[in-house]
């Protein structure tokens, strides 16, 4: 309701305040409880905390790209939901097949290096989508989606191993649960975050494009005159032609603003994915000796 009520409205600020107080109360209660329901003290382990950050960013970028790609396929390329799902299938197959291989590699090589390699490739693949247009072929889209699946396969099994390796054996069960919770929060918040960013950015892009029309060799009035003449030559009355010309110009501006917004969103997600490389440097330290 933030966009409807206003993010600085008393209603939204009250909800955010209540949520912050409730969250802080839960954290404090769990930290000082001798038998906590959720062992948040595991986050005192620096290596585990860094791994949890990588898990969160990796899941967030993965779900965000899936949402934006499917939205682009249906809104601009006019794919049906089933066709969009088929476009995502090769990537899922590649992830499933190569995850086994990456798991075996994590037994040979340090897992964090595999994770960093995968995050680098994932970021590069997402960055390629910043050049995507309505004229981009299905083959190119499928290639980069599949390449992203290939890259992500190196961030699944190795990341799980690197995340749990700093923990004692008695902490593995709770550590695994916390990582699953972390993934769930990232997956649930990804669509909301990327949709909010997309919507706000779309409004900004539309304003900028309308302002930039004054600097073009052919201004808005010239374009409307040309479109109006075209519709009149096709047999429309003057008033109907003017209405159609204005509607077409607005649609052209919105389509162009939307395309730039997709590029901005993909760039933002690519940077988030690349940011996961930094905490990955501190992952995978040796497990402490059992007490």
Automatic annotation (TrEMBL):
Is Transmembrane a UniProt keyword of this protein?
yes
Q: How does it sit in the membrane?
A: Multi-pass membrane protein
Residues spanning the membrane: 12-33, 45-72, 84-101, 113-135, 265-284
Question: What GO terms fall under cellular component here?
Answer: membrane
Q: What is this protein called?
A: Major facilitator superfamily (MFS) profile domain-containing protein
Its localization reads:
Membrane
Q: Which InterPro entries match?
A: MFS_trans_sf
Q: What are the alphabetically sorted keywords of the record? A: Membrane, Transmembrane, Transmembrane helix, Transport
Task: Give the residues annotated as coiled coil.
Answer: none
């Amino acid at each position: 309701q933030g966009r409807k009520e206003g993010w600085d409205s008393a209603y939204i600020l009250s909800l955010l305040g209540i949520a912050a107080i409730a969250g802080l109360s839960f954290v404090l209660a769990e930290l000082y409880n001798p038998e906590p329901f959720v062992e948040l003290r595991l986050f005192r382990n620096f290596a585990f905390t860094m791994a949890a950050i990588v898990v969160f960013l990796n899941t967030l970028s993965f779900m965000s790209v899936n949402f934006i790609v499917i939205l682009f396929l249906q809104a601009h390329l006019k794919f049906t939901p089933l066709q969009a799902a088929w476009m995502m299938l090769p990537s899922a197959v590649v992830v499933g097949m190569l995850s086994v291989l990456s798991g075996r590699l994590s037994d040979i090589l340090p897992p964090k290096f595999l994770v960093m390699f995968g995050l680098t490739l994932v970021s590069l693949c997402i960055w390629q989508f910043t050049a995507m247009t309505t004229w981009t072929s299905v083959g190119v889209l499928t290639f980069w989606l599949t390449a992203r699946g290939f890259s992500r396969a190196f961030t699944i099994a190795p990341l799980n191993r690197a995340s749990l390796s700093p923990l004692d054996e008695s902490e593995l069960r709770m550590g695994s649960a916390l990582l699953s919770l972390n993934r769930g929060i990232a997956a649930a918040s990804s669509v909301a975050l990327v949709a909010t960013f997309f919507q706000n950015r779309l409004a900004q892009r539309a304003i900028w494009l309308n302002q930039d029309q004054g600097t073009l060799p052919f201004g808005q009035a010239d374009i409307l005159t040309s479109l109006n003449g075209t519709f009149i030559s096709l047999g429309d009355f003057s008033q109907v032609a003017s209405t159609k010309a204005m509607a077409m110009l607005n649609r052209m501006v919105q389509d162009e603003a939307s395309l730039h917004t997709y590029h901005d969103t993909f760039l933002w997600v690519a940077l988030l994915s690349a940011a996961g490389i930094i905490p990955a440097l501190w992952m995978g330290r040796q497990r402490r000796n059992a007490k």
